[in-house]
Amino acid sequence: QVQLVESGGGLVQAGGSLRVSCAASGRPNSAWRMGWFRQAPGKERDFVAAINWDRGVTYYADSVKGRFTISRDNAENTVYLQMNNLKPEDTAVYFCAVDANRYVPKSYNSAVAYDYWGQGTQVTVSS
């Protein structure tokens, strides 16, 4: 069983930066893909970014490309999402997730592809 704990959310002004973290209790392996999703009130959970644990290949939603960076720390079993030039429309609860076997064909940007989820952390961007 994998447990994920997010941290680092908060309130920031538009144009500011924030970094959220996700610590995994299980031991990541080469088959893992870790992703970030976000959900605003009344909206669906949307893909933000993902990273393959072994070689660090990254994927981004068009809406955050060039502003957000996903990375991982192998030694700490932690994935990060650095968010720059934040906009009010980035306001949402951000969730970390793990796809435990990315070798099974699936869409990296689909929530149903992920097996484990964290509890979420709130990010609020004021205008």
Task: Explain the layout of strands and helices.
Layout: E1 4-7, E2 10-13, E3 18-24, E4 33-39, E5 45-52, E6 58-60, E7 68-73, E8 78-83, E9 92-99, E10 116-117, E11 121-126
Parallel strand pairs: 2-11
Antiparallel strand pairs: 1-3, 3-8, 4-5, 4-9, 5-6, 7-8, 9-10, 9-11
Q: Can you offer a commentary on this structure?
A:
The protein is mainly beta and 127 residues long. 0% of the residues lie in helices and 48% in strands. The chain is built from no helices and 11 strands. The chain has strands at 4-7, 10-13, 18-24, 33-39, 45-52, 58-60, 68-73, 78-83, 92-99, 116-117, 121-126. The strands form 2 sheets. Strands 2, 4, 5, 6, 9, 10 and 11 form a 7-stranded mixed β-sheet that branches. Strands 1-3-8-7 form a 4-stranded antiparallel β-sheet, with no helix packed on it. Strand 4 and strand 5 (45-52) form a beta hairpin. It is globular, with a radius of gyration of 14 Å. The N and C termini lie far apart (40 Å). The mean pLDDT is 95.
